[in-house]
Amino acid sequence: ELRLRSCGHGRLPLTRLPNRWGTTMSLPRYSAFDGDASAATSEEDVEVPPVAAVSETNPFYAQRDDKANLLPNPSQTSASLSDQPKRSPRLMPPPSKATTSEPTETSPCVVVERSIYLSRKQSKSNEDEGLQRIGCLFGGVVDDYQRRLPHYISDWTSDVLSPKALSASMFTFFSTFASTVALGAVISRNTACEDSFQGTDDDFQCKEGSSFLGITEYLLMNSIAGMFHAIVGCQPLLVLRPTGPITSFLTLMFQVAKSLKLPFLAYLSATGLFVGAYMLGVAALELSRYIKYMTRFIHDIFAVFVCSIYIVDGFIGMIGRFIDDDPDNLDSADHSVGEALFAVVLSVLLVGTSFCLYWMSESTMLSERINHFLVDYSLTIASLVCILISYLPCGSIYVERVDIPDQDKAALPSPSLELADGNQRSWFVDEIWDQFTAKLILAAAVTGIPIVIFFYFDQNISSLLCQKDEMHLKKGKYFHSSFMLMGVFDVLGPSLLGMPFVTGSLPHSPQLVKALESKSTKSSDLDDPNASRMTTYKVWENRVTPFFFYLLIGVVLVFPFSRWAIKTIPTSVVDGILMFVGLAGVFETQLWQRIRLLLTHSSKYTYKYPYETLRPVYRIHLWTAIQILALALAWILNGLAMGLSVLSPLGLCFPLVIVALVPVRNYLLPRLFTEQEIDLLDSDESHEALASEGTIAF
Fold first, then answer.
1. Is 107 a residue whose pLDDT tops 70?
2. Mean pLDDT of 491-497
3. Cβ of 289: how many Cβ atoms within 10 Å?
4. What is the C-alpha to C-alpha distance for residues 397 and 338, in angstroms, rounded to an integer?
5. Cα 141 from Cα 234, distance rounded (Å)
6. Band of pLDDT at residue 111, cut at 50, 70 and 90
7. For residues 587 and 603, what is the distance between their CA atoms, to the nearest angstrom?
8. Where are the alpha helices (DSSP H) in 332-419?
9. pLDDT score for 478
């Protein structure tokens, strides 16, 4: 990369400078090449010899190495520069606008950069939108709202007038609701009240068999926080919910509470206070701007780790029926092998049907409109089909279905936790604040640190991936305000209501943006079948779509009919949805594409991505192996802590693996790979994206 700067000269005419790469660079005409500044005030251009000749005749620039990187020669004084012979200018045709740019009055510096991919059309300022430093407390938050406010009316009106708004809402409802129900069932098992853990306050002992957290808390927190974020958030398309990693954190916190003899709800409430305070501090100091230094290397590892949690949860739920020995379940069903096999069939059928419909966009079997309809409602159609098939056995095989706690006459459903006296706990947990001790507060303060570290990556990478340039969003990019709102939710939810944390969700956030995207392809010449084709993209950015599916999640818990409808969903279908959502997210990563290359001969490469041109191919596989190693290390820490309660504090440290990837990427990998190899392997774009001149996004 070549950087030449000429600062402090105000607005200057420019000169085209050829180099040995065959490209041109724009420089201020007032430079050492022109001698007197007054000789370069006309509007004509001055021809400058190639770089090699310039470096030989003008000692102001000296070659640093064989790559012709030119740096100022510190030994050359300004006096000696005046002795250099002046070059006679020769008139040249005016330079084209594509190769010439002028500095502005507010930015007098001229920066000339040579990138390996000269066809990239997006500027650096556009890539870093929303991540620039403002320089005052909550300055980034204020900047987010100032940029989003002009679009607020269109978010509720014009951009809702598309069939995509409804189809995307239903797609995200099924994927979000099913995974939230599944994770709620997981946390209900993991936080079940036992004789060995009754808390420390006799007035707040739980009844054995109930759970501190469950499906009700997960769904309510998802619905309330989501609707509020859809109304006031700067990026409403960011899907927030209690995620798989949050479930892992809560499970580890429950085990820590047991090992330290702490009341769990009080421990959760105090941790929420610290987590929210830490997150608000991050938003106030604009620390989210450093997420721009996270490259595709880290994005892929993090995305695959999060998505793999969904896959593992669904797979364990599917095969767990073969080893289910819970005596409470045996009272109502025989849990035969036939039941387990039928459940596996439903899970596999949902995954297969969903992907068959999800990939119909590439099919020519049906019309384009029908294909798009099947893609938009792929998960909805597959779920309905599997629910209908689940009733075919007609009682001959027991089918386990989603169980939502019964609702009394109250407007809101009751919490999952049942106290020893037979009553449900109240929603507000302020009565347990008197259980705060120095030991509990210290444990909560320490526990909040790794949680916030993980939320920093989870929230900001989710925001980054759903707002990338290839997502074709046109209403701006927002990071600081979303992180601040997550901090507010993570204070109010756990600390006041005893609910779980929420954060931005992968892969749901990018999937929602894709579900709202419509594209059309037109030929540049209708009479010529071989003419180039132009693809037009439109993302229907609105607030109604996320608000509607968050509302549906909350409605499920309120109205009797909706509760009955949810109870018709087999748990095996929920397991299948978890696996589909996780697999769909993994398939979108370049890490998965390079894993496939491990089993593909180099002659069969499609060359869709720049790294496929790299030779020898073992360099590609070495990069992939490093990412797999980091992914395995994160799973080892998480898995050991989940399996052994004595290692539960260690499990809280798995976000440090993600933190360690930053120095690995910035310091270790440059020692193992050349700069050109890193440019190819860590590229965000495919060859099609780099080379397509006929693509318009609006």
1. no
2. 90
3. 18
4. 7
5. 9
6. very low
7. 22
8. 337-358, 368-376, 378-390
9. 93
pLDDT at 690 over 80: no
Mean pLDDT taken over the chain = 75
What does the DSSP 8-state code read for residue 570?
B
Q: Hey, how many other C-beta atoms are within 10 angstroms of the C-beta on 122?
A: 10
- Residue 82, both tokens: 């005046």
Residue 271 confidence (pLDDT): 94
Helix 618-643 vs helix 655-663: angle between axes, to the nearest 10 degrees?
Answer: 150
Structure tokens at 401: 């279905």
DSSP 609: S
CA distances from residue 372 to 229, 366, 515, 537 in whole angstroms, order as listed: 29, 10, 10, 14
Rounded to an integer, what distance in angstroms lies between the CA atom of residue 66 and that of residue 59? 17
Which pLDDT belongs to residue 455? Answer: 92
CA separation for the pair 317, 179 (Å, rounded): 12
As a whole number, mean pLDDT of residues 4-17 equals 42
Residue with tokens 């589909």: 580
Q: How far apart are CA 308 and CA 585, in angstroms?
A: 9
**DSSP output for 274-308:** HHHHHHHHHHHTTGGGGGGG--HHHHHHHHHHHHH
Type and span of the H or E element at 27:
strand 24-28
Q: Which amino acid is at 586?
A: V
Own/partner long-range contacts of 370-377 (Cβ < 8 Å, ≥24 apart): 372/518, 373/167, 376/163, 376/164, 376/167, 376/168, 376/171, 376/515, 377/167, 377/170, 377/171
- pLDDT exceeds cutoff 90 at 544: yes
DSSP reduced 3-state for 518? strand
**In which residue are the tokens 């036992």 written?**
194
Percent of the chain with pLDDT over 90: 23
